[in-house]
Amino acid sequence: MMRKISWLIIVGFLCMGWLLGCATTQPVDTKKRAEAKHQLGNSLLYEKNYQGAVTELREAAELEPDNPNIQNSLGLAYQGLRLPERAIPHYQKAIQLKPNSPEFENNLGTAFAALKQWDSAIQYFQMAADNYLYRTRHVAYENLGSAYHNKGDYRRAIENYRKAVEFYKDYSPAYINMGISYEALKEWDNAIAAYKKAAEIEPDSALPHLQMGDLYLRLNRQEAAVESLLIAIKIDPNGPYGKAARNLLATTRKPK
Questions:
Q1: Do 164 and 129 form a contact (C-beta atoms < 8 A)?
Q2: Rg of the Cα trace of the chain?
Q3: Which phi and psi (to 5°) does residue 123 adopt?
Q4: For a disulfide at 75, which of 16, 25, 87, 170, Cβ 3.0-4.6 Å?
Q5: For the chain, which domains are there?
Q6: Sites in the chain below the pLDDT cut of 50
Q7: pTM
Q8: How far is CA 53 from each of CA 23, 153, 174, 253, rounded to the nearest angstrom?
């Protein structure tokens, strides 16, 4: 089973708040055209039509090149196309135009992380996480933990996942990733406890049960593995987690 840690980008705020723009000396009609294209680009982003979003947002940026929110949106669109190297200059320009913007810093961190440039990713995730005005600091801390995990610094990864749940106690993805880092340290009981906490927070999620079932199998705890995998299948019978659980279940021996 592939064990990936995902990167979180703040798109929801973009679709609601990025449309305000900044005061400029441009003619009013030019500014309005830029805002209209920005809004359309954000709508296409929300629909995951990244090519269409890039087209609209590039035109918006040509009309209003000093709007940091347009630059950030354009970065998100390029990342949607899996072109983080093209996203980076737009995030950097957004930060240059509007310093101390944790949303932009977090997004720049995700682009560096996609390129496996962990030190640069950590730099910007830390900047976002340290900003007490950032409404979703837990996201930056989780991303920070993921970067440290990928660097092989599992203790610091866990430390940052714990900070994430300090800011948002019911943030189950941090517990899932915490479990993965504990597994890397071979601290099996701590890993299982983290997965159980994630399952407690999100009882309708199959992922924690899949993670537990996979770990129990590797620990040769067959009965516990079967129990966890069957729960994952029940919750997600036709989805990817249910399919992965069935594949793992096929490798188990029937408990006596």
A1: no
A2: 21
A3: -55, -45
A4: 87
A5: 8-99 (1.25.40.10)
A6: 1-2, 10-24, 256
A7: 0.85
A8: 24, 37, 30, 50
